Amino acid sequence: MPDPSHPQRGLPVAPSRGRLTPVPAGDVVLEDGFWRARQDLNASTVLPHALDWIDRLGWTDAFRRAAAGDDARPRQGKLFTDADVYKTAEALAWEASRTPYGPAGERLAGLGTLIRSAQEPDGYLNTWFGHRHAAQKYTNLSHGFELYCYGHLIQAGVARLRGGAEDDLTAAALAAADHAVATFGADDDTRVDGHPEIEAALVELARVTGRERYLDLAGKFLARRGHDTLEHHAIGPEYYLDDRPLRDVDVLRGHAVRALYLTAGALDHAVETGDDALVEHLAGQWDRTIATRTYLHGGMGSRHLGESFGNDYELPPERAYAETCGAIAGVMAAWRFTLATGEPRFADHAERALFNMVATALHPSGQRFLYVNPLHVRHPLPEPGDDEAPFRKDTPRAPWFWVSCCPTNLARLFASFSGYVATTDAGGLQLHQLTAARIATDVAGQRVVLRVHTSYPWDGTVEIEVVEADGRDWELAVRVPAWARSARVEVGGDVRSVVPGMARARRGWRPGDRLTLRLDTTPRLTVPDPRIDAVHGTVAVERGPLVYCAEVPGGAAEARHTLPGPRPKLTEVPAGVDGLDAGAVGIATTVRTTTETTVPAWPYAPAAPEAETTEHELTLVPLYLWGLRGPSTMRVFLPVEGTEE
Amino acid sequence: MPDPSHPQRGLPVAPSRGRLTPVPAGDVVLEDGFWRARQDLNASTVLPHALDWIDRLGWTDAFRRAAAGDDARPRQGKLFTDADVYKTAEALAWEASRTPYGPAGERLAGLGTLIRSAQEPDGYLNTWFGHRHAAQKYTNLSHGFELYCYGHLIQAGVARLRGGAEDDLTAAALAAADHAVATFGADDDTRVDGHPEIEAALVELARVTGRERYLDLAGKFLARRGHDTLEHHAIGPEYYLDDRPLRDVDVLRGHAVRALYLTAGALDHAVETGDDALVEHLAGQWDRTIATRTYLHGGMGSRHLGESFGNDYELPPERAYAETCGAIAGVMAAWRFTLATGEPRFADHAERALFNMVATALHPSGQRFLYVNPLHVRHPLPEPGDDEAPFRKDTPRAPWFWVSCCPTNLARLFASFSGYVATTDAGGLQLHQLTAARIATDVAGQRVVLRVHTSYPWDGTVEIEVVEADGRDWELAVRVPAWARSARVEVGGDVRSVVPGMARARRGWRPGDRLTLRLDTTPRLTVPDPRIDAVHGTVAVERGPLVYCAEVPGGAAEARHTLPGPRPKLTEVPAGVDGLDAGAVGIATTVRTTTETTVPAWPYAPAAPEAETTEHELTLVPLYLWGLRGPSTMRVFLPVEGTEE
Q1: What is the DSSP string of B430-463?
Q2: Any chain A CB within 8 A of the CB of B482?
Q3: Cα(A381)–Cα(A383) distance, rounded to whole angstroms?
Q4: Contact state of B611 with A524 under an 8 Å Cβ cutoff
Q5: Non-reducing end beta-L-arabinofuranosidase-like GH127 middle domain location, by residue (chains A, B) (predicted)?
Q6: Which residue out of A375, A529, A560, A638 would a mutagenesis test of the B interface target, given it has the greatest number of B Cβ atoms within 10 Å?
Q7: Between the CA atoms of B531, B532, B538 and B542, what dihedral angle is there, to the nearest 10 degrees?
Q8: Strand, coil or helix: what is A171?
């Protein structure tokens, strides 16, 4: 049973410095609404589903056989499947903190024991290398994933330690970390791993244990990176992010998930060591990436080849890669920036990625997931079968994947979601994510209990009710999202307009007081920067934090929808969308639909082909709903007629 | 010394049936002009350069060491480098036919002896498998490339046999083919290779030797394919084209070069066996591919991931993969369709791919090549150094590549180019490619000598002069390209307008007679089909067979050029382009150039950002010239203002 009094209880990130201090996940209970439904689905379904699949595919058995020295059959799965076992363990650890009387703790205990059983006496642990392949240990740091796997093991251990528990899992994590320190810690060692991840994990382990040696090793890995010690990947020297030092690079590049995990680790280290110049440099990289290399839905990494960032403004909607893990890594990085800087733009990004990528990736059944997140689907595809773990990643939601980083990443995010909601500082409390919740924590020396009432994102009203407070002054702040074109805050009869950023109210809060944020969620048109050539001459429709799309279920070839004027009328359809989430708001608009029945022999001609068009009403739906009504075509960016440059 | 009287002399494809019979390469001598310059460059520079690189990288040494059983060091290069040695041999063989007194024959002799020396007694030949890895022979048909390599060896042997020579190379090719028949020929064998290539090679070998067994084996490989006997590639089941039978597929898909080689092989087999239904089916696949999956420059295969075709109309210009080998394979397939059907649309495609892909891929130095052929370069990149063979493929022209299929493919195409120019049938001669040439061949029972005078593509006049003919009636036909908006043919004072297709004139031709084709090469605007979303709201500029581009050398970030109206004025700049090919014609137009100096924090907004524009004249250059003036930005499709859907 975890100890609910642990000072870092349930915290996904617990910096010792920085502008803001996260409110422990244990102090935040999500209440009925958009995110609580998903957090519950994660606990009830995603976690058992993940445990089932890591068993089915032999990924847990690999530990059993490593422990037993059983070489009879070839090991199953890719060489980094250990990481998915660890991420499942991490998710269970967060879930055990959140619901200590639920089944997660017991499920985790067995997994932890299994993991620990495969560890070698010196702390080495890997079911691909090690044991019978002992001679190959650490011979392929570029693409062997050994330290990457340690990183996820350590993150799982940190999650468990932050629940106040010590068990086989935490013992394995500590032993692996100590083994890494012993093996890679020498000052003249130049080695790094091809996949960043251990950096953030080591800093977090230092935070929870107070042991400097883990922080030191993280710093060494960060300093060593960027000096071309790893082999070049065929995709290009930037793939492993080892070709140029972090401080020489001004925008994220290379493999997107690697770049984002590296950002998180570097930021953690910079915060702990007081390297404010690096914090600022990393924030500059982040801002430039948001400005030029991020999709409307918050996805990062536009290229399938190398799962990598493209050039500035290279953001094709149809073959957007925008890996689910990239969104999750982006949320993790954004949260670290929020804590370090206190600035609201990072939580703005997290909100965008959460509602339009993370929510999209999870099927309402809890048993299917997206790996890649396109913004245009021209070619309807059926979902893979219930027993399929496809090799390919560009499928509709699949039960699992041969490379299955995304489902386990979703699981650990949802289980720790409450830790990404609110912060405190010396003067008060800040609410970053607008979600129904009960928050009971210490604020400026007093115990405060708040309830956040909202049906966000469907409604733009967020009411923060003070349930408990002793009347001494403190400041309550709430993020006014960047998307809000108008917003008001009401406190005790006082109403004022606010602009995006943090809306703040300082007073002697008493039980029954309320701060109400009213955001204008009128559907809006969004015009992409003309430098994003792939969506030239189009607009998107958004409402609140949600990106909308034109989806046509039924499996037929794509009809081309065009908006007949540059300022089309958008009408909310509050009854929801047929067959879907009762709360969902659709947006009706008039589109001109072209059904080209002819296919010219050559698609480049003196003029566009004549085409018949019909004008009719189409109800756009939130992007996260796409693909739930069977094979469909979908597009976020709709061509408009009559635009001017 | 090759025998210049061989009936298939120099012929890259020699079907025994079909509508048209190719005029042997030996009967066509290119004269000074666009293609002759490149053919000479190939002989003088590309071939020695290729020989140098296959030595430098150890790809020839692999044969030496396989022959000697030398295991001392690890073999260098990817597991299909044998194929590039064979393609170099094939190119030398064609070149030895073309220039029997040149150095190609001698260079080839040494290479042929080396190749033969590594062959095992039963005909098996592979420097990766075999010998010390004998137990692994044919254990990885999906991705081992053994039969693919045989295919290229056999093609080299065919080239040599069609020069009338028999030597070590032809002995090795015949032994490998017989080994393949013995190993894979059983009726109940179901095996196929992951990379098609051997099919066309076996049919061609049957054509040149008259041995049915090679044709039979090709037919077996074709019939076996499409029944899921190969492992699925991670990219998807269509990658190896083994998931669905050829006859069930109505458009090219999967790996582009694999698909095009398979088309060539299937068409060769269908022609030889009289399977007209299959010929028609393949032509339908081809037509659909041209209509929906081909770039303006003739490139095929839009995706970097899997080097594969995308969905219909998925043709992004910036990250166009459009591999050079795909263009070459397309020319090879198109020529086979030309011969089988006699229809001119196939040579139209070949012309487009030759002028805009093949010519683009070859640097004027003859020592650098493009692998990938984009239509938009946003990010200027320097060329790799003179000693670099990069892993990555999306570089500017490089001296060689780690996977270097494209340079050797260019070499074999240029060396055999004369074989793709003209055909005969019972009634006359047809000129398919409009190139300066001397053609001396048998037409309708008489010896005919023609000279084609033209400075095409710079000038649209193509004059065919009859040098020798005995006055009996026959029909002279010339392709009027599909791009021509107006064209006239003059024969003996008679002038008539002609439309795209074959312009034909039947008469008793006598020495001194002339047929003159006059094509209108006025620069023209080309509008992409609106279904190609990635170029929505843009136009391209073409002139004759050439696609033009806006290129800005200098290495600076891209400025955005917009055409200020839907029908911009295009003016020829006949003085050529500064520093480039004297014959080149530029096209001046007025563009509005936007230099966004600000980078908004988020590139999606209620309206496009304000930007300063300057109007000025820009000279567009033929696409094949891009990148020759140093690192540059480039785009083929230019946004236009004021277009209507």
Answers
A1: EE-S---EEEEEEETTEEEEEEEEE-TTTS-EEE
A2: yes
A3: 7
A4: no
A5: 429-520
A6: A529
A7: -110
A8: helix
CB A499 within 8 A of CB A487: yes
Q: Are residues A392 and B236, on separate chains, in Cβ contact within 8 Å?
A: yes
Across the interface, do A608 and B311 touch by the CB < 8 Å criterion? no
> Residue A84's Cα: distance from chain center in Å?
16
* A291, A303, A527: residue with CB nearest B606: A527
Which phi and psi (to 5°) does residue A439 adopt?
-120, 120
C-alpha B52 chain-centroid distance: 23
DSSP state of A523: -
A8, A331 Cβ separation under 8 angstroms: no
Answer with the residue of higher pLDDT: B216 or B645.
Answer: B216
Is the minimum CB–CB distance between B594 and chain A shorter than 8 Å?
A: yes
Instruction: Tell me the two tokens of residue B162.
Output: 């069609």
pLDDT at residue A369 is higher than 50: yes
Q: Which residue of B has its CA nearest to A598?
A: B291
- Contact with chain B for residue A639, Cβ under 8 A: yes
Assign A203 to helix, strand or coil. Answer: helix
Write out chain B residues lying below 8 Å of A607, CB-based.
527
Return the residue matching tokens 């304000």: B610
The helix (H) or strand (E) run that includes residue B592 is strand B586-594
How distant is the Cα of B468 from the closest Cα of chain A, in angstroms? 39
Could you give the count of Cα atoms lying within 13 Å of B526 in the half-sphere of its Cβ?
Answer: 26
- What CATH topology corresponds to B21-420? Glycosyltransferase (1.50.10)
For chain B, say whether A236 makes contact (Cβ under 8 Å): yes
Secondary structure string (H, E, C) spanning A91-106: HHHHHHHHCCCCCHHH
Fold of A422-519: Immunoglobulin-like (2.60.40)
Radius of gyration from C-alpha coordinates of chain B = 25
Q: What is residue B24's DSSP assignment?
A: P
Q: What is the pLDDT of residues B92-141, one digit of tens each?
A: 999 999 999 999 999 999 999 999 999 999 999 999 988 777 889 999 99
Nearest to B316 among A292, A345, A534 (CB): A534
Listed by start position, the domains of chain B span 21-420, 422-519, 525-639
Residues of B in contact with A292 (CB under 8 A): 599, 603
Residue B604 touches chain A, beta carbons under 8 Å: yes
B187 inside 8 A of chain A by CB: no
**Distance linking the first and last C-alpha atoms of chain B:** 62
**Per-residue pLDDT, A498:** 98
Question: Under an 8 A CB cutoff, do B641 and A642 touch?
Answer: no
Residue A578: what pLDDT? Answer: 65
ipTM of the complex: 0.94
Considering only CB atoms, which chain A residues are within 8 Å of B538? 536
Query: Any chain B CB within 8 A of the CB of A234?
Result: yes
For residue range A13-38, list pLDDT tens digits in order.
Answer: 999 999 999 999 889 999 999 999 99
Q: Tell me the pLDDT tens digit for each residue of A266-323.
A: 999 999 999 999 999 999 999 999 999 999 999 999 999 999 999 999 999 999 999 9
Whether A538 has its CB under 8 Å from any CB of chain B: the answer is: yes
A303 with B304: Cβ contact below 8 A: yes
Q: Which residues of A touch B396 (CB under 8 A)?
A: none
Question: Could you count the other beta carbons within 10 Å of the beta carbon of residue A475?
Answer: 18
Q: How far is CA A347 from CA A48, A332, A414, A500, B108, in A?
A: 30, 10, 16, 12, 66
* Residue A576: predicted pLDDT: 65
Output the pLDDT for position A579. Answer: 62
B-proximal residues of A, 381-440, CB under 8 Å: 391-392, 402
Q: Which helix H or strand E contains A348, and what residues bound it?
A: helix A345-353
Whole-number Å distance between alpha carbons of A405 and A84:
6
